[in-house]
UniProtKB/TrEMBL annotation:
This is 1D-myo-inositol 2-acetamido-2-deoxy-alpha-D-glucopyranoside deacetylase. Gene3D superfamilies: LmbE-like. SUPFAM superfamilies: LmbE-like. Its EC number is 3.5.1.103. It catalyses: 1D-myo-inositol 2-acetamido-2-deoxy-alpha-D-glucopyranoside + H2O = 1D-myo-inositol 2-amino-2-deoxy-alpha-D-glucopyranoside + acetate.
């Protein structure tokens, strides 16, 4: 990096756990090298499906305490990744997890997708003006896998970065088809994997031809795993003691832990950005 001021990275995520699932290695890598990393989370993830049986009464249709519980999970994950600046958009609990597309929680009056795009964008603009990141990360227009809150996060980040000229680059965090398929094939060789293998095409992936930037996270896999373990209501992590590792969401589908995290440049110059979100920025 050749920046004259400290690199500042800001990531906009929809729910607690997305920062670790999509960008955990990247966060750990830049935090470890002295960058200022800010994570903005838009909701508390109240509608997530709960994996451990002993925590299921927290659910939205029972005690409805999952959101508060996930605040603590997120705090632990941020500590594992080295994030010192975490914020909830609009403050803790301002917007609620909308749930997957077409479910009744989409209509909740505090659902993130029921909120005003203009109000949410203005709040993010305020954060951008305080933090002054050179690089901002969010999801692609499909939200990575179609979740309405992820799509809304994309929309407000696109709108907010359009009016803050100090942001040099905007990236979409994606998953690589090639890395995911190779990783899944390697999982098939492991004995004792407690999750089922993904069917071809079952995991959301992006064609490698449109990926502009690959961040090597091989030195930060243990931090990413610790962060994923912190989200124990949402993520099961498995390690075999011999270097094999995988994780699964509540659907029980094995996902490989791959050596890179992948990005599509959405705004700004890509010169020098092939392996470094800040590469080539002066
Ligand atoms: Zn999410």
């Amino acid at each position: 990096m050749t920046l004259t001021s400290p690199p500042r990275l800001l990531l906009v995520h929809a729910h607690p756990d997305d920062e670790s699932l999509w960008t955990g290695g990247t966060i750990a890598r830049y935090a470890a090298t002295g960058a200022l990393v800010t994570v903005v989370t838009c909701t508390l993830g109240e509608e997530g499906e709960i994996i451990p049986a002993g925590l299921r009464e927290l659910a939205a249709d029972a005690a409805d305490q999952l959101g508060g519980y996930r605040v603590a999970e997120l705090r632990s994950a941020c500590a594992a990744l080295g994030v010192t600046d975490h914020r909830f958009l609009g403050g803790v609990g301002r917007w609620r997890d909308s749930g997957m597309v077409g479910v009744p929680s989409n209509e909740h009056p505090r659902a993130f997708v029921q909120g005003s795009v203009d109000e949410q964008t203005a709040m993010l603009v305020d954060v951008l003006r305080q933090v002054k990141p050179q690089v901002v990360v969010t999801y692609d227009a499909f939200g990575g896998y179609g979740h309405p809150d992820h799509i809304r996060a994309h929309e407000i980040t696109t709108a907010a970065t359009a009016v803050v000229p100090d942001v040099d680059r905007v990236f979409y965090a994606v998953t690589s088809r090639d890395a995911t398929e190779k990783g899944a094939a390697a999982l098939a060789e492991l004995a004792d994997l407690p999750f089922r293998l993904p069917e071809p095409g079952e995991l959301p992936v992006t064609d490698d031809a449109i990926i502009t930037t690959t961040v090597d996270i091989s030195e930060h896999l243990s931090a990413k795993l610790r962060a994923l373990r912190a989200h124990s209501t949402q993520v099961s992590v498995w390690q075999d003691g011999a270097g094999g590792a995988a994780y699964a969401l509540s659907n029980g589908i094995a996902q490989p832990l791959v050596q890179g995290e992948f990005y599509v440049l959405a705004k700004g110059s890509g010169a020098g950005a092939e392996t470094d979100l800040f590469g080539g920025l002066g």
